[in-house]
Amino acid sequence: MIQMLKEIIEYRDLTMMLTFRDLRVRYKQAAMGFLWAIFMPIVAICSGILIKKAMAVVSQQPLDTQGILSISVKVLPWTFFISSIRFSVQALVGNSSLVTKIYFPRAVLVLSSILACLFDFGVAMAVLIVLLTIFNIGVSLYLLWLPLFLVLLLLYTFGLGLLLSAANLFYRDIKYVVEIILMFGIFFTPVFYTAESFGRWKAIMLLNPLGSILEEIDKVVVLHQMPDILWVAYAVLTSLLVFIIGMIVFHASEPYFAENI
Amino acid sequence: MKYVLEFDQVWKKFKKGEKVNSLRDAIPHFFSRQDKSVSLQTEEFWAVKDISFYIKKGEVVGIMGPNGAGKSTVLKLLSKIIVPNKGSMLINGRLSALIEVTAGFHPELTGRENVYLNATILGMRKKEIDEKFDEIVDFSGVKEFIDTPVKRYSSGMYSRLGFSVAAHMRPDILLIDEVLSVGDISFQAKCAQKIRELLSSGATIVLVSHQLDMIQSLCKRVILLQNGEVIKDGPTGEVIPHYQNIIYKKREDEIKHKIKNIDSRVGVDTRALVDIVHVDLKKTFGLGEQINITIEYLAREKISHPIFSMDVLRADGVLCYSSRTDKLGIKTSSIQGKGIISIDLGKNMLAPGVYMVKFSVWDREMIHPYIIHNKEVIRVETEALNNLSDVVFIPEIKWTI
């Protein structure tokens, strides 16, 4: 695994080039340009507000700005996650001419498609920061936790991306399964609602490390609370585990990519 | 002596037929395996069998062989795209493969962006590309269109740009697979020039090609593969004749197969007036070897003053020579029953290759053939390298200047 990491670092130029390629192609083809990066988050936030409104009506409470901001803050990492997974599932199969013709560490393909999504994430985040400032959300010392959560998110996404891209190479219908899970995944993850609202079933919502990461991000950014150390530890462990398993499985199956693609 | 490339008893197998590559197939497949050993195992075959070779620094080695010999598999193994099932290989140095030079191109990107992208994929650093960028573009000759998306390029421009990028790498080991047939003659000349530059820089080159003259002019050593095995490894001059013989043998088999097919389709015309009962003709000849043909015929009725004719055609249909009894002024009396004809063709001057000998019997006016016997195939083998690839004859020629 160390060797694999070393190789990925050695091919960093290639990673950057491929990321750049993905971005160039995406922004070139879409007339909307940079709007592309915030299009999906905006749609997701709107649907989140709608659901929140419906819940507010049912529970006969007013719709609070804080709830909406929480949704916005959680939607961004969520959209980053699903678009990363969506692109990385196809990362190997979609570049089959490269995989069968030229040698380089294949993980670079997955990494670059995730990095391209990370760029979109960054653009959307910049917009969000402006919004948060306008709504005067304020800052607290807890914000220092945020980088850790983002790193965890990245590790988890990368690990899962590696696993799924390799799986999709051997079994081509994996991508349909993934697509369906991603489509409805938002209902199984605390994005539009909080895990707290489930009472004692809360733990189930947080078992997916993505859920716990989103919840903790919400806590440190919007709610200005101390993150739940237990769940943070859980998220660290599971993300690392997924990352390591992803690396090992990918590395072990890498030699067979070219002849099975 | 230190080798830069070591290939030690390498084996590689591939699967034939359809593979299970979806969950939809894999899940039932998994369960069916448990209830009984339904032999759904896909057939496997060895693409590379126990191949060993060692290449020293600065050597230029050609890999040759008929289609399906395993040449491309060897290159793919060398470039680490696939891994061997058995055996070990060692590569010392920076290796680049000119296997598919446009593999890294993206149609939406401009020529400039693609040069950077492709060069990076092939293993160049950003700084190197910056330095060589102008050179690469000049070489490709698409300077005018360098900021146009490559999807608007003609296929020639496309591959020229791809080759230019690849040609400007400075690897220790370079693998080349049939990519030099890009562009017009002047571009090919530039490519050959580039390869020579690489040679003089001391790079080790492994070249896969069917072009004999290129192999001859560039390589000092050739490895000949057939059916996944090394059958000859040595100096170019010694190995190329072997290669040619294999190719000729293959062509001979193809022609024989064709003749057989035609035969079985038409059915034997048993009611012909003349039958060729037996032809005595050696199947393979060397240069300068005596060729004799003896033909036994059976004439079912009396035929007066027949004309015998014999043609020798090359496999591609070129009539090499032909001989007729009436032209030679040979008077034939009438024939009936069994008889024997012998033809002395003298010393063989036909160039190495595959030839067909056609023998026919005609009436005296040369209007109606009694029989056309078109089944004899001969092959001329080479022992030595002849540089003239497409000649028909190799007579003994003496010059006085």
Description:
The complex is a heterodimer of chains A (261) and B (401). In chain A, 77% of the residues lie in helices and 0% in strands. Chain A is an all-alpha fold and 261 residues long. Chain A has one domain (2-260). In chain A, helix 2 packs across helix 6 (107-134), helix 3 (35-58) packs across helix 6 and helix 4 (65-89) packs antiparallel against helix 10 (209-223). The model of chain A has no long low-confidence stretch (mean pLDDT 88). Chain B has 401 residues and is of the alpha/beta class. Chain B folds into two domains: 3-94 and 171-248, P-loop containing nucleotide triphosphate hydrolases (Rossmann fold), CATH 3.40.50.300; 269-380, Coagulation Factor XIII, Chain A, domain 1 (Distorted Sandwich). In chain B, 28% of the residues lie in helices and 34% in strands. Chain B has helices spanning 23-35, 71-78, 111-121, 126-140, 155-167, 185-200, 212-218, 236-266, and strands at 3-15, 44-56, 60-64, 86-91, 95-98, 173-177, 204-208, 221-226, 229-235, 274-280, 284-285, 290-303, 307-314, 319-324, 335-347, 353-362, 369-380. In chain B, strands 5-6-7-3-8-9 form a six-stranded mixed beta sheet, sandwiched between helices. A five-stranded mixed beta sheet of chain B has the order 11-17-16-13-14. In chain B, strand 6 (173-177), helix 6 and strand 7 (204-208) form a beta-alpha-beta unit. In chain B, helix 3 crosses helix 4 and helix 4 (126-140) crosses helix 5. The longest helix of chain B has 31 residues, at 236-266. Chain B starts with a strand and ends in a 21-residue tail after the last strand. Residues 35-40 of chain B have low confidence and may be disordered. Classes of the chains: A mainly alpha (261), B alpha/beta (401). Chains A and B meet through helix 2, helix 5 and helix 12 of A and helix 1 and helix 3 of B.
